[in-house]
Amino acid sequence: MHNSRFLTVVVLGSTQTLAWASSYYLPAIIADRIAGDTGVSTNWVFGTFSASLVLSALLGPKVGRAIDRAGGNGVLAASSVLFATGLCLLAAAHSLALLVAAWIVIGIGMGLGLYDAAFAVLGRLYGMAARKPITGITLIAGFASTIGWPLTAWGAATLGWRETCLLWAAVHLFVGLPLNYWMLPRPAGLAVGPAGKAASVEAVPLDRTMILLAFAFSAVWIVSAGMAAHFPRILEAAGASPAQAIAAGVLIGPAQVAARLLEAGPLGRFHPLTSARLACVTHPIGAAVILAAGGGVAASAFAVLHGSGNGILTIARGTVPLSLYGPANYGYRLGILGAPSRFLSAGAPFVFALLIDRLGAGVLFVSSALCVAAFVGLWMIRQPAAQANHGD
Predict the structure, then answer these.
(1) Where do transmembrane segments lie in this chain (predicted)?
(2) Mean pLDDT within 75-97
């Protein structure tokens, strides 16, 4: 059983790495090349990408419900086909219309194939024991940008950005599709609710805890998206040199992975709410350090603190709802909780750009306030006494 679970984590971690590298992390490397080749402004390229994120958010609840009912093999396999189709359209784009069409298809693929769907699959397969597998796939897929950015940059420089998109499409069809459809276990029977009946949409009320979770996850994901787009620029506004800002930014990825290792180890003994609450305060602490001390070591400390919190919060999006509500309707619940954060984070880079122009490093007061608000929201959720020690 444990070998089967390990294989599932490796398969999902691998396909998640592929999905993130070839969709979410793609524009950062090739947006300027797309703009130059198609005659469309870079702002339009990022605008269509943002619209695809909104589309993926709107699909979340329906995708989660489909996984709850029948498992995720078909859903994730369909995402592989959609990613491949969207990337082929992108490679063929010579106008805004085809560019929009490509990102619509990729956006549907993201709705069917990123973390929320993968978490729902694990919840459907393993129920309350899904916490460690969820941590496992984020450990692997945490390297998506580390792997994806250099590969995309190399391909764009040596082959061309269109050929690179076609290569990513081929990997989806010949690697991602068979892994998602044939290598993942298939759940037995329909998902059932607590009364033993087939799960239904009505079984998921929008109660106080759901509202607080949606608020907390939205607040931290706005910060995550804003920082991902502007991190070096913010550090420079706080007093770091360009070289210090870039060097600090490199530490975010390792910090995320290190924090996820902590979540898989020592923090795994505690309820996921405890980990999530701790993760909300690391960004404000780091912001206080860099605002007080400027660049150099302070910039690196901020990067490590921000990255570690971000790494654990990615896991918390899957583990906290599972621990509070159980596996019944888990995929649908994740879709509802994830929709506001995906929707709001799509506009975060633009809003943060405006705030940096007006406030400079003062934008960190805004980002810290959002994280503190998320902490307060999570603190207002009652932790079940029976799950205070929530290991796997």
Answers:
(1) 45-63, 75-94, 100-122, 134-154, 166-184, 210-231, 243-262, 283-305, 363-381
(2) 97
